């Protein structure tokens, strides 16, 4: 089962500390499943951990979390080789593809080596919901800010550009994020785009922003655009998801 139209949920959240396991899906990840429209069976969710190098420990924690949530979870690993024979067929069979955070620069490079840049575009066109957190948010956009190269943030400008905007993540929790996002848009390095506080997600239908949603009350999303030589920020009040803290 797939969503009604090409859909992306790009977030700065999605997980919570678990009660019996290390972590559990939060309302944002559950919302990605809702967007897929799946009913009457366990939702098929594929976790893609490329940005962290397909760490086995993270895969195990995500598997535990999925069991608690009742997801039919699989992992797409690319290290040391793809763990499925036909990557595109595997992803097309999913309801949701969830991309973990980490190094967006490394993620994009590895994806391109394996042709996932084109595969994921076809998967998106087919209606599988593409989602993720941090690197798994920036990747769907033209680019954004990243700590892939070190603790001082730098721009990434070669995202998959499924949506024609830039993306700022962890907007309220990492002090470099907001000013750098503004500067990159003001000087034309990045196009106008959308940013999310921790706990907030952006829902795109096709290439248009449908709404912002949040699993944490009091948080927001933002539209940032260039006006002259400056960046202008507009706050977007998100819809509060069921179970939000």
What does it look like?
The protein has 7 helices and 16 strands. With 245 residues, the protein is of the alpha/beta class. A hairpin with a 7-residue loop joins strand 8 (143-146) and strand 9 (154-156). Helix content is 26%, strand content 30%. The strands form 3 sheets. The chain has an 8-stranded mixed beta sheet with strand order 5-4-6-7-1-12-13-16, sandwiched between helices.
Map the helices and strands.
Elements: E1 7-11, E2 15-17, E3 23-25, H1 27-36, E4 44-48, H2 56-69, E5 72-76, H3 87-92, E6 96-99, H4 104-113, H5 116-125, E7 129-133, H6 135-138, E8 143-146, E9 154-156, E10 166-168, H7 177-186, E11 193-196, E12 200-205, E13 208-214, E14 221-227, E15 230-236, E16 239-240
Parallel strand pairs: 1-7, 4-5, 4-6, 6-7, 8-10, 10-11, 13-16
Antiparallel strand pairs: 1-12, 2-3, 8-9, 11-14, 12-13, 14-15
Compose a concise summary of this entry.
By secondary structure, the protein is an alpha/beta fold. Helix content is 26%, strand content 30%. α2 links the parallel β4 and β5.
Average pLDDT, rounded to a whole number, is 96
User: Using only CA atoms, what is the Rg?
Assistant: 17 Å
Largest sheet: 8 strands, mixed
Shape from CA axes? Answer: globular
Order of helices and strands: EEEHEHEHEHHEHEEEHEEEEEE
Q: Work out the helix count.
A: 7
Percent range of helical residues: 25-40%
Spans where pLDDT lies below 50 across 5 or more residues: none
Distance N to C terminus? 30 Å
CATH H-level superfamily: Class I glutamine amidotransferase (GATase) domain
CATH architecture: 3-Layer(aba) Sandwich
* Content of β-strand: 25-35%
The number of distinct β-strands equals 16
Tell me the structural class: alpha/beta
Q: Which CATH C-level class is it?
A: Alpha Beta
Domains (count): 1
In CATH, the topology is named Rossmann fold
Biggest sheet, spatial arrangement of strands: 5-4-6-7-1-12-13-16
